[in-house]
Amino acid sequence: MGNRESKEADAKPSSLSPPRQQTSAETVDPQSSTPSPLAPAAAISSAPRPAALGEWESPITSAFITEKAVRLGSPQLRASDGALFWLEGRPDEAGRQVLVMRSPADGSIRDVTPGVDSGFNVRTTVHEYGGFEYCLVEENDRVYFSNYSDQALYVQDIGGQQAPSPPRLVTHGSVDRGERFADACWDATRRRLVSVSEHHRDSATGAELPPDKVVNRLVAIDVSSGAATPLASGADFYAAPRPSPCGRWLAWVEWDFPNMPWDCTRLMVAPVGQDGTVGQPVRIAGGSGGRTAAGSIKAAEGAAAAAASSGSTTSDGNGGDGNVVDSNVNDDGSAIQQPVWSPDGSYLYFIDDRTGWWNLYRCRTPTSQGFQESGGKEEEKAGEGPKQEVGGSGGSGGGDSASRGMEGGWEAAAEAAESLSPMQADWGFPLWTLDRRSYQVLSDGSVLAVFCDPRVAGTSLALLQPPSQPSQSGAGWQLTRIDAGFTHFGAPILTVREAPAAAAAAAAAAAAGGSGSSGGAVGGNGKGNGGLTIAAVAASPSRAAAVVQLSVTSAAALASVGPSDWLEVRKSTGSQLPGGYLSVPEALSYPTTFDDQPTTAHMLFYPPTNKDFTHLPGSLPPLLVKSHGGPTSAASTALSPLLQYWTSRGFAVADVDYGGSTGYGREYRNRLRERWGLVDVQDCCAAAEWLVADGRVDPRRLCISGGSAGGFTTLACLAFRRTFSAGASLYGVVDLRLLAEHTHKFESRYLDLLLGPLPAAADVYEARSPLKHADGFAAPVIFFQGDQDKVVPPEQAVQMYEAIKSAGLPTGLVMMAGEQHGFRQAINIRTALDGELYFYGAVLGFKASMPGDLPDIKIDNLKPPQQQ
């Protein structure tokens, strides 16, 4: 599985970025690795003082972390002028999310969303986790967005230098959060939005639907009337609807229970008629052998025509289609994501893990008599649709000519799909939110992408350039890693803008047999005067997340850029991290077991760091193991003030990528199949035990914490093993059967693959649920829970807390008012952080420095540490 999947028993450290020696007269801005001198000289601290580990005083307080801090995401560049938009989640505004804009003219930044008193909050809850809550429309300078309180779509005018207009309601029928929208894009041919829709209310009674009755589909939204017309339905889930540049095709990703989007999905393409209806879809890639395709094109024509006449294409939702043309490509259950059309529409790109790794592929858009898209649009009269439509006359979208063309075209194109990145690296990422945009196709045919190479910690930015002649299996494609100075890209999302003249020149050069411009230079440090502008939310171990932007004269110039060429537009942190407190992680591979066989797992290890203190002679630091959520997720290499909070107080931190984490290929990701609560527990315990054996941490003070699925792993480690001395669960799962029966639709069958389907696997759910084994706990544990959590209902935390309390162990429960799955409000973020430290100090016997405004944290059954 690549170099980090070594079967050797010895751990293999590799530093992400070795910490340089710092003097006491330096400060480190988390957004920059460049030190800045402290003025005045009197502020220079004396030599470090010996003090108990865990009791070190630190300027990185919970108030410091949350003060003016924001969550950054979903950057988009407007093609017309290069204006940059992004979302900010603001803890000091009760966690609400706002759309922000940077002007390309003068660099000024302003909110697009009205002030906090307006009640607007740019957030969607499709799949509960949402993703890409807004859509920019170039032709009329508008932005459409989802509002959290009612989940309706609104529109604002954002043209010119004038202030954005007040939001106007678009989807009038979306009341009481009945229909939710996400991942919308603009269909320029028909001047409408195409979006993922999730329907939560009975159309007849208005009653809220249970999770298994919630309907997901693709819809077209008339922006004048707000009417949502179904385009595709019948599968259990949909993502990434993408109209082709000429409007004749619609590509999307869909999947069915019990799969999650990283298990098995299908890439579909369908013709779109002149009236906007969608015809018979073809499966291009993905799927599994259980999905039955139409026996022939002709046999499906009746169903396709019926679906087109109703404006929707349907499947039975159980893996079989009556009207789907199946290309029979890649029938092994691979997971497809992120379909992207090339700017001229001649290729459809996608990410597929058919080889065991999420690699990038493309297939040529087919041509046949009656329709063509390999050379861009045919001439059209202003204001009219395509001159000759795919679906035949009348706009049915499912006529004979389209079916015959698709049979001879898309099937052949799918069979000839070209791999552009055949390597043991992941170019895709788990689709927890509907906002993945990890690559962009440029006009010259090259691809700018973020990918995860297991040999290098974190994610990398790279340029893929095509060969002069078409090839199979990626032969001749040139991969150039770009020195951006970042190891983490948020979501990840890349957004690019090619200046019209530069795009035209690059396309012409590519058409002539080249690969675009052969030279170029940095075009102004992100100030928008280059031919190519790139933006992202990015970070590194020494730089906290920020919205960053780069402008260059051409794609070829990217090979010569460096970290200093990126413009930092907006920081996620409100304050500068003081120098001498930055802990830089090591990427470690350490020994563990899988199915009783020796193997390796991975972690990021952060040593305690504080320029003002040193440890007492003979002492070792307490350890905090962080078990990430998901469980299909991964540890981040971004500078996290939340982690530095611990290391600056004398803790060591191990951020564990247990088996099941992403970034190491499908085989590693699938280690959790039917083994959740076993593999993750083993790997977290093995990480702590290896660090003890290596002499890095105190074996008597081993702590573990995690949120959501990571909270479950934390509790399972405490219930079934004796490795850890204390733990903290943040909105963690405690009863697996209760989770399966009462969680939301998106994850309602997730446990079928992690544990086994019910009722057959009922004994497994019982055996691995921490709540059912409260008598197995021997270490103290505290719970932090949102009282409005729909992913992990708060009743789970209450039941677990009561069980631990009844067992006589030190425990506590802090219920966060107004919070859902994760904490967004500044006061609750602070309480959870300080409360966890306070709890560890109380049960392990050290006195940590606490803020004066910490709410009362009640600890039941607390005894002197020596009696615990």
Automatic annotation (TrEMBL):
Domain of life assignment: Eukaryota
Gene Ontology BP term (one): proteolysis
UniProt feature, compositional bias: Basic and acidic residues: 1-11, 375-387
Chain intervals with Low complexity compositional bias: 32-46, 323-335, 401-415
GO molecular function list: serine-type peptidase activity
Biased composition (Gly residues): 391-400
Peptidase S9 prolyl oligopeptidase catalytic domain sequence ranges: 643-845
Region (Disordered) location: 1-46, 309-338, 367-415
SUPFAM superfamilies noted in UniProt: alpha/beta-Hydrolases, Tricorn protease domain 2
One Pfam family recorded for the sequence: PD40
Comp. bias intervals (Polar residues): 14-31
Family matches, as PANTHER family: PEPTIDASE S9 PROLYL OLIGOPEPTIDASE, PEPTIDASE S9 PROLYL OLIGOPEPTIDASE CATALYTIC DOMAIN-CONTAINING PROTEIN
Protein name per its UniProtKB record: Peptidase S9 prolyl oligopeptidase catalytic domain-containing protein
